[in-house]
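Hi everyone, sorry if this is the wrong subforum. Our group has a chain we'd like a structural model of before ordering constructs, and none of us has done structure prediction before. Sequence below.
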Amino acid sequence: MKLTFIGADHEVTGSMHLVETSDTKILIDCGMEQGKNIYENAPLPVSFKEIDYLLLTHAHIDHSGMIPYAYLQGFRGTVLTTSASMDLDAIMLLDSAHIQEQEAEFANRKGKRAGKDEVKPAYTVEDAKKCLEHFKEVPYHKEIKLSDTARARFVDAGHLLGSASIELWVRETKGAEEKKLVFSGDIGNFNKPLIRDPEYITEADYVIMESTYGNRLHEPGLDHLEDLRRIVQETFDRGGNVVVPAFAVGRTQELLYLIRQLKEQNLIKGFDHFPVFVDSPLAAEATRVFHENLTECFDDETKALVEKGINPIVFDDLTLSITTEDSTAINFNQTPKIILAAAGMCNAGRIRHHLKHNLWRPECSVVFAGYQAEGTLGRMLQDGIERVRLFGEDIIVRAHIETMRDMSSHADMNGLIAWASSFGDLNGKGRIFLVHGDDDAMANLSEKLRQSTGNVVDCPYSGSVFDLTANEWEYVAEPVLYQKQTAVQIRNDAVTNDLLDAFNQLKAVVERASEGANDDKKKFAEAIRKLAKKYAYPD
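Answer:
Right subforum, don't worry. Here is the predicted structure as tokens:
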């Protein structure tokens, strides 16, 4: 019975962990790496075909984005997640696949002229559609039996609509001693609009928890409504547009909640009916999902609005732009306005078109309301870059660059410590494993947790394996620096993995045949030799 660390180890994207018992293999998350990668991920030690269950903490692509790839590699198990996460992934995975297909098509148009090999996406829209057939929703707090050796329960993590921490009870064989693992997922910030605060869990043997803001404290007393009011008023008074690169799922809906308050309380003077555009088909679909999950996931304040007949994220003068024509028309509208568009870090999507039309205008503002990863266009703008290149043009940056501080959906250091402290001493012999954080965040938080909880705290690298039965490390991996792979290399790796999977199947057949009659064994051996000779390999 063991736990293997695969993704988001000393990094903040690509979450993936494997738990194995004698008869069940369980993945927790299957995320895509995004932004700058520092370390190589170890390969999954088993075939995706062998995975029985995939427990998904939430719908963000860095936790769910490689599920279609897993399907492409033979995964036919069951994805268990909350109803809201399933609804969100039904749009997010299709969107991710569509973006990859577009990027591959663009690369191939250029590459063909240069005589380069064809680039293929890691997965297609069709792969995403097929993998969604394997999703099954589970309610919060209901215990789910997975097998004779495993059971699970989802509790609210307060990070995103439908997000969950996962309690997982496992034993090596039926009737053996049981161990409880808790996977935090992404732990939410407190007192956020719309969704509930994260729930605390009080018992565990092992805790696998995120550490994204393990070395950072959110500023106390921030008034996001006032920050937004000031930015909008000043920008409109200059005759400019407020352009907000916003994550389509979560952050866009929080901003709509704040904008509704600006309008309801008449806080923008002289612009009573200012237009607001959400220029993202994905954000429009996600907003619909938020509305459909009002009762299951929203906090008491939001529910009170709903009971009064108020939709907390819809208001007059709001336009959801779906088509390309809708998007283009926004930039021909001279009225001062708010434009919310994806992607949140400005590396893709319609936001880049709006930046092209507004960055050079000193009357406009570009407002960042979410984390900007190193190496992204969003971070470059935050750091004061003076010129950017968009669609083949050099654009001078004259717009006001604003940041709404600490609108994070992640708990800060104190929030993480409070969440971890709810477990007490982990039965005197358990451990905390920190994941989903960079080196500095993990180092700082691990020391704080050792001091505050008295528990053993580890920060494993990808490929490390912990023996849950023996309560000790089976293998401690060393860090391996990341080397960028192309889409072709990713696809080639998939073919190689398929070959190795076939070898493992052949090996299993050989082991069973070794118990058979001698004549059958001789025939089998001769067949294998012929196969080896056919492909020019020595006996």
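For your construct planning: The longest helix spans residues 83-114. The first strand starts at residue 2 and ends at 7.
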